[in-house]
């Protein structure tokens, strides 16, 4: 499978620094093209694992945030929400915006 860089990674705070540490930590000798190829091969599983840990499944994270918003909206139709519940709904909306934005970046 070819190496694929995801633009969403650039939106994660501290990604460039972590990437630099990983890159510099991979020690390979040989020609410049060989070093590049081997470092990319070594970096691929690291990035795949990191991507899964940090982003998980964008679609499912976005859907979970949407479900939380929907639940709070339904609850509000029945009764008034407390300040804590209003804050939880606000956090769910921010989470939804974040995942929708990352999905859009990914598609670009």
TrEMBL record:
UniProt-recorded name of the protein: Uncharacterized protein
Lineage: Eukaryota, Viridiplantae, Streptophyta, Embryophyta, Tracheophyta
Superkingdom field: Eukaryota
Organism encoding this protein: Vitis rotundifolia (Muscadine grape)
């Amino acid at each position: 499978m070819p190496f694929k860089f995801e633009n969403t990674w650039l939106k994660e705070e501290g990604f460039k620094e972590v990437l630099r540490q990983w890159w510099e930590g991979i020690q390979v000798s040989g020609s410049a093209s060989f070093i590049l190829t081997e470092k990319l091969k070594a970096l691929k599983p690291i990035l795949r694992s990191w991507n899964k840990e940090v982003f998980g499944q964008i679609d499912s994270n976005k859907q979970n945030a949407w479900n939380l918003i929907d639940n709070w909206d339904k609850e509000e139709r029945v009764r008034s929400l407390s300040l804590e519940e209003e804050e939880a709904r606000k956090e769910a909306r921010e989470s939804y915006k974040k995942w929708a934005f990352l999905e859009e970046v990914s598609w670009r």
